[in-house]
Amino acid sequence: MSSAVLNPVSLPSGNGFLQRYKRELSVLAAYLTLLLLLAGRAPRFYSSNEFKSILVNNASVLVLAVGMSLVILCRQIDISIGSQLSICGIVAGLAAKHGLPMPAAAILCVFAGATMGAVNGALIAFINLPSIVVTLATMVILRESLRWGRSGAFVQGLPKGFQWFGFSQDAGQWVVVGLAAGVFALFAWAMRNLAAGRTVYATGSDQEAARLAGIRPRFVTFVVFTIMGALSGLAALLSVVRFPSVDPKSGEGIEMQVIASVVVGGIAISGGRGSLLGTFVGVALLGTIRPALPFLGSEAYWDKALQGSIILLAVASDALYERKKRRA
Prior knowledge:
Elements: H1 3-6, H2 15-20, H3 22-41, H4 44-47, H5 50-57, H6 59-73, H7 81-97, H8 102-125, H9 131-150, H10 169-193, H11 195-205, H12 207-212, H13 217-240, H14 254-264, H15 276-295, H16 302-327
Helix pairs in contact: 3-15, 5-15, 6-10, 6-13, 6-14, 6-15, 7-8, 7-9, 7-13, 8-13, 10-11, 14-15, 14-16
């Protein structure tokens, strides 16, 4: 295999570091500006328990954003993750309700997500169907199947060990945050230091060049979608344990926030460029904007319009970048 493609690269220093992480640093600057704005105009934001709530509420978003980063780096997209999360949450709730111990329910939840991701990956990688078409179809199929199967009914009567994994609320919240942080740290390290992580970048940059370097782009794509599904299962678990019952609509609309967080953090829609560090900052920024809007005198629902605008601007910016690169 080509060492240029797969070998981990050393961290740049000085101006090289600033140039390499220009997008991530600009998003971080925007986040710090938001925090300063809140400090000046709405200091009560800091006197409440908002930051801890932001961490807990966005733990599942961060896990999904890690998986979505891999998918987009491969020059693909997955808009079925909200439906996957809803189904995995119901699987975890029903498993716990019927007597499975929490570790077994968690494994079943992650396995269910990985299975759905593998189906997407097989259709995209081996049958060569467009990812937007496949995941749009599976999103609708999964959502309507869940609606037919549950008729909107919550999973109730859960055992005491389900909510917050059996810990107290305060301890359980930190467990949720810690698990999400651990997933992020593991994948950030792997994408930086392991050859397997570099194959994702290579596949998204140029599949033909990656194939000539000994990489199997179809297999990489399949594995990435399977990982995305497994992370959807884990995210579902981190989401549903916060409540005494499981909502079958818990994942509706979350794909928009996840995709917006990933692209605002600098992952290129065209694939092959970006870092999980940027994804982390993007999740932090968008996760803070929604609860901050009421403190700034606006309505919280405007965050959906903001997410759509971010995605549109990211796609337009990426198109301009590609046009400039072709002219160079």
